[in-house]
Write a structure and sequence with these properties.
Number of domains: 2
Distance between the termini: 18 Å
Mean pLDDT: 90
Order of helices and strands: HHEEHEHEHEEEHEHHEHEHEH
Number of strands: 11
Number of helices: 11
Structural class: alpha/beta
Helix content: 40-55%
Length: 258
């Protein structure tokens, strides 16, 4: 249950529209709801301002549907990651208001739209080394957007043609956070980290030939970056980078929980 739902419930109790017993029944699901296969953290939105996000790999389609339906009953906005096309087809049939993006593999459910951001709001720039990094980059970008952050993109600006990156210097220099997504040797993150004054989040991807070791080479390159102000998430973890960037932007805007 998120903050808006709690406030609405308390207002209804105060106005006599909902009895104390009815309110207690709704609040009884805090701090978690046991579905048998999953214990949903229904209290997370109150603690952190963001509801639990569903990681769908290795869950059955039935489990995912069950989880999303229950979260959707108690939260205005729900996010699921790493959803295959087959699972998404079933989810959308059973939960009609869900949206699926095949590139990011995200499923979203929104009962309420977020307030529009001002045109000059702080923004996250997501940059990629190549087009092959798009699935991870879009997972990051769309995660941050769904959570309420302003996002811009600069794709296919890898170091094999570094002039492409330098052409985006205005976007880079004005960004408040940069997510740098790259496979192969992961050099883009060090280059970006040496150019900008804002925090840089490196996301190594599993893109590359054999000696890239499914992203390990890029991960080690980013971890050993000589550029200052670079943090690194795990291989292909676009969601983690997008959430982390959102938390930074939320704090900049003074919207963080106190």
């Amino acid at each position: 249950m998120d903050v808006n739902r709690i406030q609405q419930l308390l207002t209804e109790v105060q106005a006599g529209q909902v009895s104390v017993a009815q309110a207690l029944e709704q609040l009884r699901r805090l701090p978690y709801d046991d579905l048998g296969h999953t214990r949903l953290d229904m209290h997370r939105a109150l603690r952190q301002g963001l509801p639990e996000v569903v990681f769908c790999e290795n869950k059955t389609t039935e489990q995912v549907v069950d989880i999303l339906q229950r979260l959707g009953q108690h939260h205005d906005r729900v996010l699921a990651t790493r959803v295959s096309a087959d699972k998404a087809q079933v989810i959308q049939a059973k939960i009609p208001n869900t949206h699926y993006d095949a590139t990011s593999r995200l499923v979203t459910l929104a009962h309420r739209e977020l307030d529009p951001l001002p045109h000059d709001a702080p923004y996250l720039l997501v940059a990629t080394g190549g087009t092959s990094d798009l699935p991870v980059a879009e997972e990051a970008a769309q995660t941050a957007e769904f959570l309420g952050s302003r996002v811009k993109r600069a794709y296919d600006v890898g170091v094999a043609g570094v002039h492409r990156l330098l052409d985006q210097r205005d976007l880079l220099f004005d960004a408040d956070v940069v997510i740098s997504v790259a496979g192969m040797e992961g050099a883009l993150t060090s280059v970006v980290g040496g150019l900008v004054a804002c925090p840089v989040i490196g996301v190594p991807t599993s893109v590359g030939y054999g000696a890239s070791f499914n992203g390990l080479a890029a991960l080690l390159s980013m971890l050993n970056s000589c550029a200052s102000g670079v943090a690194v998430v795990n291989i292909d973890n676009g969601f983690g980078a997008g959430l982390y960037a959102h938390l930074i932007l939320r704090r900049i805007q003074g919207k963080d929980l106190k």
